UniProtKB/TrEMBL annotation:
One of its GO terms (biological process) is fibrinolysis. Keywords: Carboxypeptidase, Disulfide bond, Hydrolase, Metal-binding, Metalloprotease, Protease, Signal, Zinc. Residues 6-298 form the Peptidase M14 domain. This is Carboxypeptidase B2 (plasma). The chain holds residues 113 to 414 of 423 of the full protein. Belongs to the peptidase M14 family. GO terms for molecular function: metallocarboxypeptidase activity; zinc ion binding. It comes from the Eukaryota. It comes from Maylandia zebra (zebra mbuna).
Length: 302
């Protein structure tokens, strides 16, 4: 298997980020946007400079290993197929692509330690000192702490003591606030269940551009079915998955990023979070097709 068909330790991912930036000085820049609770750097890779931009983050939830694997896959594919694949070329010619390979490095690192493979949250220690970890996808400032989240630091869906209390969420939010005039597409990568989710999750109200969003994910799902014979479901978060406050997708949408998506990659529960390395290429190629499909559609609309 190639480098991209294996799961990597956090150290290997940091090395890969440095090497990728060094080997591609004209096309790739590593930008430090903040640090995690345990003071690990949060690097965003910028792939080519433009007026429009898209953002992809991976690894918000520690145990969803296919997610960081996809970010590495995506950057590698973009660099390898620029001027070969027409969609990649078109995207890179007209958009900056910001990629955060591991939004939750402390949690990810923790899942590589013995018996901690199922950890989801970050590793911040609560005020009481009793429990560890905030669910970063409940920590954003949108209807914070209301639905599908818990103020109890011992729970899996703990939203933290206040919105953006966590350095990881704060770093992403600050970066997107600074770049909201150019970033038109926000994608956050999770697993599992094979789903394309768009706003809203915090309310059953329809997003103002609901039909555009629906059309985009529908097209992505159709192409995946056609090319890879695999099924993805899709729809607005609250109705399709569950009502839920404080998610990054809704927050980015309300910031003004009109095309905002959560991808839930393979599989549909057979292996769940323990998706075997032999499935990485399949899972990533499907997600890649979806990213390309949606990005090209965003370019047509903006
Ligand atoms: O609950 C989540 O954070 C995501 N599912 S997961 O199984 N990967 O944890 C779904 C997020 C959908 N979007 C929002 N809830 N805003
Ligand atoms: Zn997740």
């Amino acid at each position: 298997s190639t480098f991209y068909e294996r799961y990597h330790t956090l150290e290997e991912i940091y090395d890969w980020i440095n090497r990728t930036a060094q080997d591609n000085p004209r096309t790739v820049k590593a930008i430090l946007i903040g640090s995690s609770y345990e003071k690990r750097p949060l690097y965003v890779l910028k792939v080519k400079p433009n007026r429009k931009a898209m953002w992809i983050d991976c690894g918000i939830h520690a145990r969803e290993w296919i997610s960081p694997a996809f970010c590495l896959w995506f950057v590698h594919h973009s660099l390898s197929f620029y001027q070969q694949n027409s969609e990649i070329t078109r995207i890179l010619d007209s958009m900056d692509v910001y990629v955060l390979p591991v939004m939750n490095p402390d949690g990810y690192k923790y899942t590589w330690t013995i018996k901690r493979r199922w950890w989801r949250k970050n590793r911040s220690i609560s005020k009481s000192g009793f429990c560890v970890g905030v669910d970063l996808n409940r920590n954003f400032d949108v209807d914070w702490g209301i639905k599908g989240s818990s103020q109890n630091p011992c729970e899996e869906i703990n939203c933290g003591p206040f919105p953006e209390s966590e350095p990881e969420a704060q770093a992403v939010a600050n970066f997107l606030r600074r770049h909201k005039d150019t970033v038109q597409l926000y994608i956050t990568i999770h697993s599992y269940s094979q789903m394309f989710i768009f706003p809203y999750s915090y309310t059953f109200d329809q997003a103002e551009n609901h039909n555009d969003l629906l059309e985009m994910v529908q097209e992505a799902a159709q192409r995946i079915k056609r090319y890879y014979r695999n099924t993805y479901t899709y729809g607005p978060g609250a109705a399709t998955l569950y009502p839920c406050s404080g998610g990054s997708d809704d927050w980015a949408y309300k910031l003004g990023i009109k095309y905002s998506f959560t991808f839930e990659l393979q599989d549909r529960g057979e292996y769940g979070f323990l998706l075997p390395p032999s499935h990485i290429s399949g899972a990533c190629n499907e997600a890649l097709l979806a990213v390309k499909t949606i990005a090209v559609k965003v370019l047509e609309k903006t």
